Amino acid sequence: MRTPLIAGNWKMNMTVSEAGAFADELLKNTLNESVEAAICAPFIDLPVLIEKLKETNIKIGAQNVYYEQSGAFTGEISAPMLKDLGAHYVIAGHSERRELFGESDSDVNKKAHAVIEAGMVPIICVGETEEERDSGRHTAKVAGQVKAALEGIAAEAAGELVIAYEPIWAIGTGKSATSDDANAMCTSIRTEVEKLYDKGIADSVRILYGGSVKPATIEDLMSKSDVDGALVGGASLKTDDYTALVSGAAR
Ligand SMILES: O=C[C@H](O)COP(=O)(O)O
Fold first, then answer.
1. pLDDT digits (tens, 9 = 90+) for 89-110
2. Per-domain residue ranges for the chain?
3. Which of 212, 221, 237, 242 for a ligand 1 pocket mutation test, highest count of atoms within 8 Å of Cβ?
4. Looking at the whole model, is its pTM more than 0.80?
5. Which CATH architecture best describes the domain 5-248?
6. Dihedral angle at the C-alpha atoms of 42, 43, 47, 53, nearest 10 degrees?
């Protein structure tokens, strides 16, 4: 049985003061404990979140990482730095990074390796453009991204992974995939993982859907067999919506 996961992705939002205030507000709410809750925040917000939420089960994650351990890489943050800080998750290959910052499948794979080697869990993002879906290439595109991201990842680590299926056309647009379409893609991702490893690993990998998920849509998504939670952008920025998403993800 896979534990449902709601991972907020704050993207480039929230100053340190705002992050601190969010944590203080969140502490007043009761989060459903049968669901794993995580917040992936800008690097500068991680210390305040980790400190303020340390008595809770909420896991804190980063939104990016550089795959080298240390060295002359001005402006970058390494996986060992994030681990030392207390991060649990690191998003790798979000479509905004792929599209706006030129991140390749190979970069995503190196990032996933670095995160695992440092003892954290990558949330690997995959997803197709609207044009790829309209032309029927979405399944192949996503399978290719999964295969490339998992290249060389050992079976022991693979079962712990989180993969987020985020159709690019549904991100921040208010246009969500139907729960059936989301589930069909999550199923095909699980099938790809089974091809690369085995059924046991495919059954334990958590696969999230992302793209305009709101408190009003989470229950329908979670009623589907292969959707294990959501990676949530906009709706994770308000404590009450975030709390409602966690409640709605309970099975
Ligand atoms: O990582 C989260 C996704 O990009 C979804 O963002 P959104 O919920 O604002 O559409």
1. 999 999 999 999 999 999 999 9
2. 5-248
3. 212
4. yes
5. Alpha-Beta Barrel (3.20)
6. 40
